[in-house]
Design a protein that fits this description.
alpha/beta, TIM Barrel, 9 strands, globular
């Protein structure tokens, strides 16, 4: 992995939380959500392409918050979408699946891609494609023990559990080896929400992550 992609992967690991925005937000509403998340201490944001204004939102977020927020695209399903996301300013790509074409497109741009995996077979194939930061999705259907089991034969992989992960879950996943967490509906609603409460919820998750990491380090 080149230095640009490695640097972004290390930033995501250090931040620990990837807030995920889905739903019907305008670009301006996506910016407001980004501001609220930053106020709560979140520094990495994934805007999914299921949002109708995702690309415009990514561009606006990068323009206005690029110094304090890393912005990537999620639910990226093909090479053309990778190209469009990078053109819009996406700093990383997250996919729900593992696609050779999508991985190759991200590599052409020198952009970090975090593909979605679920089985050991998919993890092995992702490694052979050059991907070692992987989204375990849907994580809640298997729980923290599954990450610990996968980490045995695949110690080089950094797992980011996503899907049904929220407040109260972080320490158990961190103890199992998760390096970061994709947090969607447990934090950001699919419709516009109270931004002050969003900042409070984000701050609560940031504090929970800090405590979880301290507990793991002390174990």
């Amino acid at each position: 992995m080149d230095s640009k992609r490695s640097s972004m992967a290390e930033h995501i690991k250090a931040a620990g939380l990837v807030a995920i925005i889905r739903g019907s937000h305008t670009a301006e509403q996506l910016l407001d959500v980004g501001k609220a998340l930053v106020a709560g201490g979140v520094s990495v944001l994934e805007v999914t392409l299921t949002s109708p204004h995702a690309l415009a939102g990514i561009t606006l977020l990068r323009e206005k918050l690029g110094n304090v927020l890393s912005v990537g695209a999620g639910t990226v399903l093909d090479a053309a979408a990778v190209d469009a996301c990078v053109a819009a300013g996406s700093e990383f790509i997250i996919a729900p699946d593992l696609s050779d074409d999508t991985v190759a497109a991200a590599a052409r741009h020198g952009t970090l891609i975090i593909p979605g995996v679920f089985t050991g077979t998919e993890v092995g194939r992702a490694i052979r494609l050059g991907c070692t930061m992987l989204k375990l999705f849907p994580a809640s259907s298997v729980g923290p023990g599954y990450i610990k089991a996968l980490a045995g034969p695949f110690p080089q992989v950094d797992f980011i559990p996503t899907g049904g992960v929220g407040a109260g879950d972080l320490e158990s996943y961190a103890r199992a080896g998760a390096v970061a967490f994709g947090i969607g509906s447990a934090l950001v609603h699919s419709q516009p929400q109270d931004l002050a409460r969003l900042s409070e919820a984000a701050a609560g998750l940031v504090a929970e992550l800090s405590a979880a990491r301290a507990a793991v380090a002390a174990a």
